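Sat 14:20. Reprocessing the chain from the morning session after the first attempt stalled halfway. Input below, unchanged.
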Amino acid sequence: MAMIAIYCQVYCDKVNDRMVEDTHYEYMYSYKFPTKEAPADGYPAIAENLSKSFGEYEFDVTLMGITPDNPFFDIDELPDSAQEVVLGSSFACKYGLKEGDEFTLTDNDNDRLYGFRVTGITPYCPSHMVFMDIDALRELYQLPKDYYNVVFADKKLDISGERLFSTTARADVRRASGVFTDLMRPMIIVMSAASALIFLVVLFLMMKMMLDRSSFHISMLRVFGFRNREVRKMYLDGNFIVVALGALAAIPLTKLIMNGIFPKYLVANVSIAFEPAFPWYYYPVMYGLILMMYLLISLLLMRNIRKITPAEVLKNRE
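Finished this time. Tokens:
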């Protein structure tokens, strides 16, 4: 449960950071009625809406044809072929695709299936986007040589609203990136607190039961003059080694398990995808918190040890 909460936190942090970082344009204009020529300060593109299934879910995928001089996407070279594409990192991660792989996209409107080969992957996570040369896309869809339906720009353009379907600004992306975190934060807090509470309660009850069963022996140690510190070493410090070694093995093991479960099942209905990598400092922090909780339980149980007196031996003898 704790690892799920940590995964959600990392996921939300990456959504906040990557959605803004990967959006380099200031405005994206989607046309309903494009003019004959694109605005002088804009970069024309063509967006076609396709889809691809993931388990029982189906996600929208934008096949984006862009010009080679488009500065808003980090693509070194666009393939010339209409069957070769560059994938956005979110799409590639979601479907486990890499350079050289082949995949298909579905055009539900025209009931057609398109096959592509991956020639590269570019950082882009705000949506599932697949990139190709604008002329290759025109060839694929048999469109006029000057056709476009999207314009990217680094400043606001003077375009009549009657010609547009929508306008997406970088500021809108920044606001949208925080919505996911706001929705997930209560669940993250509840799961983190619940997992810590369960660990504390279970560990306390198990160790207390062990001490209760050993009360006679601890009382005998009192008779022979053993002090609290020495009793603690015999009955509590040994458990510390078990907890420390167990946590050292359990943290990477649960991380490996969650690598397979989290993307495929817990966020299967979310279109944004990332590599499941934690910042390095998460691991020592998790390990340290587990040891701190054990030490807290150990301090509480020392009160029980102090209450055990040599009189326990006499009570059992009677």
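The radius of gyration is 30 Å.
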